[in-house]
Amino acid sequence: MQIVMHQTHQIIGDFDKIYTEIETHLRDSKKGELHLYPELYFTGYPLQDLVLQRTFIERYLAFFDKVNELFESSKDNGAMFLFGGLHYQFDDSNLPIKIRNVIWKGISGQKLEDVYTKQLLPNYDIFDEEKYYEPGKEANVITFESKNIGLLICEDMWFSSSHDEDPITRLQDYISEKSIELDLIVNLSASPFFLGKEAKRIQRASLIGHKFGCPFFYLNMVAFEDEIIFDGGSFVTNGDEVIAQGNLFRADLLKVELPESKPAKTISEKAEIVENTWESLFKPSLDLTQRPPVLPQLSDEDCQTILEAIQLSVQDYIRKTGFKKFTIALSGGIDSALVVAILSLIKTQEQELEAIYMPGFYSRGISYDLSAQLCQNVGIKLTTLPIKFFHSSIKNSFKDNFGEDLEGLSDENIQSRLRGALLFARSNQTNSIVFNTSNKSEIAVGYSTMYGDSVGALSILGDLYKSEVFQLANYINKKWKGIIPEEIITRPPSAELREDQEDQQSLPPYERLDAILEGLLSYRLSLKELHDLGLDQNEIEKTYDLYNKSEYKRRQFCPIIKLKAKSFGFGYRVPITKSFK
Amino acid sequence: MQIVMHQTHQIIGDFDKIYTEIETHLRDSKKGELHLYPELYFTGYPLQDLVLQRTFIERYLAFFDKVNELFESSKDNGAMFLFGGLHYQFDDSNLPIKIRNVIWKGISGQKLEDVYTKQLLPNYDIFDEEKYYEPGKEANVITFESKNIGLLICEDMWFSSSHDEDPITRLQDYISEKSIELDLIVNLSASPFFLGKEAKRIQRASLIGHKFGCPFFYLNMVAFEDEIIFDGGSFVTNGDEVIAQGNLFRADLLKVELPESKPAKTISEKAEIVENTWESLFKPSLDLTQRPPVLPQLSDEDCQTILEAIQLSVQDYIRKTGFKKFTIALSGGIDSALVVAILSLIKTQEQELEAIYMPGFYSRGISYDLSAQLCQNVGIKLTTLPIKFFHSSIKNSFKDNFGEDLEGLSDENIQSRLRGALLFARSNQTNSIVFNTSNKSEIAVGYSTMYGDSVGALSILGDLYKSEVFQLANYINKKWKGIIPEEIITRPPSAELREDQEDQQSLPPYERLDAILEGLLSYRLSLKELHDLGLDQNEIEKTYDLYNKSEYKRRQFCPIIKLKAKSFGFGYRVPITKSFK
User: Fold this and answer.
1) Which secondary structure element, helix H or strand E, spans residue A541, and what is its range?
2) What is the pLDDT of residue B449?
3) Is residue B576 part of a domain?
4) Domain total of chain A
5) What is the ipTM of this complex?
6) Cβ pair A390, A358 in contact under 8 A
7) B chain contacts of residue A426, beta-carbon cutoff 8 Å
8) Residue B228 pLDDT class (50, 70, 90 cuts)
9) One domain, residues A14 and A98
């Protein structure tokens, strides 16, 4: 028996494409092959409200009928297919009353059969599944080629003490009752990536495989959906051993013979219950061996993984939205430089990258020189579009029409918003996509201008603190021979919106700011606890105040590529208006 | 026995203020008084992730201890208090593992006692309660002055067939088992407003009151939180009769003697099960007596309610954010004119409203005249800030620096974005708040420029279709003697971003567009169903296509005052990238 694992990379609702894929796979399949597809392969994931929209439902049902007919009308070739898909139940007026996330079994000559319903519906952080789906309440084991196959969907493997019901215990009870043994467990997943998650999945699969004394087939999809990365990395464990491993961040096909030897029914020494709930996110990633604590350094491997995660995200976003050109505003600072460096590394030959430098009265000459050097290093065009004249014209106009000068914050922000408007004018002119260049530290304290430097279709660095931006830049320079001019990394960060402005005039040094933010954002630490760790009370209070008051900016921010367990975006929900004390 | 219903109006997390309020109420309370407070009165609602943040938790616990001590140390005066609040349960490492939404009972000389946990946690549309809270599983009846009081929190009264557990049945079982009768039912709520909801609440309360043969005390809070309005409107039913009724949209205090006569234990004739779930939102509001169907007309009463809802929202938002000035960009079109008219009607004397008119090359003279007339009618200042010169300077600069003209869409959008930048420069200059002027039709089809006319801190009309914008404008003109110049209402809508532009060149006529959108957005109707109703196939497909492709704009849109059962905003979650066919 051969297990064929289709680590697919698809688009939500792209039913024609999915049908063609299934048709081809069915035609090419052979006796003894068990074909596996990810969770909700029939539709893509996450669907959110789409799952309730009648237009979507009609299209899905038409697609499903076609797949059903394809299987029913084909001659049995001895292969079995397990697809993730939806099961709708309608009321009298044709409204969906129960929607289940299921496994459809396909065998030629037969109708598709719904063999399993996802039991654990994640409903924390980015997940809203209890909003839409009805949970299954039963384990199931199917047989193929005389082998017993235990079925799970994604979260079902992440039983935890906070769940009332536990699919693993149910599976155990099921086989005890029927007096059977499992020959393999299959988990069809659509599992979001964050840094460090892969090891947790393997550890958990190994644990469950040992419990049942059989190999564990873990299949995950590849995609980037709005902000969430599905990183693939499908694998097969046989006890402690990983006997097959799929690509990360790319579609893949794994063909794995069912191993002859089964692992012992013992608890692996590595086994440890890793919870997969809100609580597991309650852990800030801080290096507590230092006082005051700092963010842990990103390893070279982390940096490489981040680059690959960004590559998938960017390429998938533009594949789906149809852009072929990217426009980035370079300021001479580290964030925009890093975005340009990354895009130059991950773009294909057909994709065009261009940079715009928009100097104002407070831009230093060196900012242009460094931007030009960077563009030369990565081989892209840099166009200068000065804003001084527009800026002074607007100032004059305000004085003339309102009788008041634009000063202070209003004078700073208008420069940033002019740049935002010009950048998007260029984007409209060339039909190019604008990527946002903000980092997580800025977003957290609102250190940016709404509709100004915060614009963009997608934020590339929005889940990386400023310290991590530096680390990633250094990694790139090490690996790609200094493509980012060193002075961009070493000069003091500045928004260059007034004379001699530097970030550190308004913010604590980034090293300490980032530690405070991680403590706050990953919930675990209160102001008092941060202070007890040796962080400065004034800096803590200032940071909390800035964070607390800038919720309104985050609400209008673009989607951010999610790289961490706890990120801004869909899984972060905090009221804008509240007591600001 | 007198029931004192505190229809409060508070700010989330404003613990000092809430404590002072409690202190005063306790001091002034008398024997035989039952004081009621809304759901989560101790904290405000909805809390979202705040409920998990340690800083918030520490503050809440400190507040709670203070209230506890206040009650414990006071001499018993024979009054009872029922407060909505949180109950935290922590694990060994002091992390919240169970959080319950409860009723705290306060009697002087005693510790606060947790007497009831909310059972039905709404988890559809704008609600995420299953993400945060642990449901109660038990009914409870407490006694005061020898009367039996049945307890409910908000959603608990909205039992429906889609819920596995039903708090009303549990309450019934509880009193049967104990062989007692209820003398009153109390429901502490934090219930969001939408047009037409009030009647549903009274109907439901009456139904439950009849079931138990006792009066029903429904207490709701007043607040505007980000986009959700809590409209107050607390009431008491005794059978079919409403014996007390609180203000809508304003704090209130109701003192109600427990009625001597109880209603019959019969099912009220008016009783009908009104579901309060996703399914109840699956009903587009369309007048199907016409072919093709249209949106139903807003009644005068609807219009007045909408104005009061907007008044609460605007005033609450600025109360919490501290603004005293409003700046609006007037275009000469209906949307911005209506916003100015509304703000002029609802602002206080201390609040300043100013308008800016930013003419470009394609602005018609009449647009200025009408804007000036409006401002004169409502007695506010209008400043003209022409964008022609900035626009042509930017065009020249693009030609010089990129060698390409800004034409078509890029030329249209830069005008809109220039206006957005200038509007916010003025906002920064005067520390005023900018209200957004988009309507629901525009937002639905993406007929606006991101960072241009779509800017603002809060959208006032974003839950009203264009046809409703006209209806509301007509209502205001009828009631306030034509303050909006009639031609603003009758002239064809135009963005004035190119020569002779009119909305209807790009969009179906609003009457039909709005009917299609309501059918699509309230989920119920698919493209085929809309066509079957007599709507035009080309217009349906065009509208769906525009809707489908503009999700990215909605993701960066500001919060919208929610006026309808189904709105854009927090309760609307659709993937940006998907198959766009």
Assistant:
1) helix A537-549
2) 97
3) no
4) 2
5) 0.95
6) no
7) 398, 402, 410
8) very high
9) yes
